[in-house]
Amino acid sequence: MTKKGQLIVVSGPSGVGKGTVLGQYLASRERIAYSISATTRNPRPGEQNGVQYFFLSREEFEQTVQNGGMLEYASYNGNYYGTPKAPVEQQREQGNDVVLEIEVQGALQVKKSCPDALLIFIAPPSFEELRSRLTGRQTEDEKTVENRLNIARQELKCAGEYDYIIINDTIEQAVERLNQIISANRYNKNNMKEFLDEVNQNA
Ligand code: 5GP
Q1: pLDDT in tens, 106-133
Q2: What Rg value do the Cα atoms of the chain yield, rounded?
Q3: How many A from CA of 200 to the centre of ligand 1?
Q4: 3-class state of residue 60 by DSSP
Q5: 7-202 under CATH 1.10.10.10, yes or no
Q6: Has this prediction a pTM greater than 0.85?
Q7: Which of 47, 79, 116, 193 could form a disulfide with 52 if both were Cys (CB 3.0 to 4.6 A apart)?
Q8: pLDDT of 15-51, one tens digit each?
């Protein structure tokens, strides 16, 4: 019997560096898939459809939601973002772990519909540090940065709903903590259920 892969949800305020942490973590791992989200926001320079996101129109997005095709979705900064359901389920059935990099509202939806999901929140060392990282990124205008900081304040308030908090002070340490948490969670009772059922059946 193939052991079902873990569902790992990673959130954190925009600018906290979760993409970099996850990228480094995933680069050296096997049997773990990164879920490509759908969004209605415009691509940033260098982003390609089907690589960072599936870029959909609002109509296409709403249609997918109506057809039950999203595991979760949320409205963030005026746009929809959502996780296509089928690829996540396929990967997990094949025994591969799946990572969702999503915002807080979506993460809490996943926790409700999949109680065995592992929720990890990546936090900045301080709010001031987050502000300077976001301003330094220079991919968004001032108004967008302010919007993202306001959202970040709300998101930080929800961090207590997550299973683990990782402070991204240095990338190396954050990657190492992520590795430890995901490795340990493989042996969490929720992920050992099939094994326990089988062993008990044959006892
Ligand atoms: P960005 O526009 O900077 O790529 O992403 C904005 C926010 O949307 C980030 O917090 C990101 O994690 C979140 N996000 C990306 N994909 C999804 C998704 O599929 N569902 C939800 N709920 N949030 C997402």
Answers
A1: 999 999 999 999 999 999 999 999 999 9
A2: 18
A3: 41
A4: helix
A5: no
A6: yes
A7: 47
A8: 899 999 999 999 989 999 999 999 999 999 999 999 9
